[in-house]
Structure formats: C-alpha cells, structure tokens
Amino acid sequence: CSVGDVDGDGQYELFVKWDPSNSKDNSQGGITDNVFIDCYKLDGTRLWRIDLGRNIRAGAHYTQFMVYDFDGDGKAEMAVKSAPGTEMTRFGSDGRVISREYITLPDEDVRAGVTNEDDYVCSGEAYREHLVRVFMDWTEHAEVKAGRWPGTLEECFGIPVRYEYPLTLADARELVEYFTDETFTSSNPIYSVVKKLFYFIRCLVRQLSSELCDSPNI
Hints:
Layout (H helix, E strand, L loop, with lengths): L1 E3 L8 E6 L17 E5 L5 E6 L13 E4 L8 E4 L6 E5 L5 E6 L4 H5 L12 H13 L5 H4 L7 H5 L11 H11 L11 H18 L10
Antiparallel strand pairs: 1-2, 2-3, 3-4, 4-7, 5-6, 7-8
C-alpha cells in the first residue's frame, strides 16, 4: 500500500496492491493469477485499477511500486513494472467503468510483432524449447565468443565433448534431454555441476533480459 495525491486536491489517495491466493515466492515454481493495483479516494471511491496481466508473476518480490509527483505538476504518478497485457480501467464516481485500455507498448516492440495478447508464461515443454534455442545459439553468445564462458555445453556439464558446433536441432534436443534428465539428483556425483549450470543458465536468461545476476550462494 502507498499514498499520493493523484488529482491535486490536497488529499491523499490510497494505492492498494492485491495479490492472488496462489502468489509465489521466487524460490517456488508454478503459474499464478493476476495482480491488481487499485487507487481509492479516502471515502472509498475507486478511481482506477491496473491489472498487471498474465505476464507479471504474483509474489512478494515481483511487484514493487513507487508513488510520487515525478513530473512536478502537483499530482502524484505511480511507477510499476508492466508487460504486454497490462490493462488500466478507470471508474466514475458511481462505480461505472469509464474506460479500459492496455498500456502503450514501445514502438520498437510493436514493430517486432509484440502485442498485448502475447503470453510469455512458460510451461515445462515451452522451457525445453527455449533451452533448445539457447543451446543452438551457444557459440554466438558474446560471453562465449569472449572466452569467459565455456565453448561447449559438454564442458559446462562436465562430460566429454561429442557434438559439433553450432549444434543442429537434433543435437540440441539431445543435450536438453541430458540436461533435464531425472538422473541429476542430489545423490549423483555430477549434481553439484548441474546445480551450478542451472545458476549459469539463470544468469544467461537474466542477462538477455538486461537484469543483474549476483554471485551464486552454492
């Protein structure tokens, strides 16, 4: 919850975030329902609601927001992470819906084909296909080219090199199967290697998303 004067009348409004009952911590897997942020006047009148949409996961670490007069016009604004599918609904004083519209997508994203109907929630099979693409493009990654990351995935896994690079689709799928095989358990001697590789892949995904990745505690 936060406060700010959104209409410049000298009285604070309330900003309330609603998490679903199936919200998850970063350490937990699974899909969540949508997160909502409502803005209320002190008499309980709801001015607007932001539905963050399917592509923003619900949980304590995902949606922080700031309320402040960022542009200096005497009215408070809210800053929050959004995604394709984030939608804002405005209400009248009688509770009727005045307008409902999606957030504005960046022009470069629109040119690239991004729409507010896109669904980036990743199923198990979708994640496998994502790994296939990552593995096929392994030798093209800047960190690999610079020599800071291993030149082959087999080196990451701690096994002999057996594939030619760049990987074919079939070879990439074989390595994904190896990577996700159920034999990687805590009793397996290679478990610690795989655990580090999971961190390594998380770093890769975060770097591609322009996010920072701290050192692993493993």
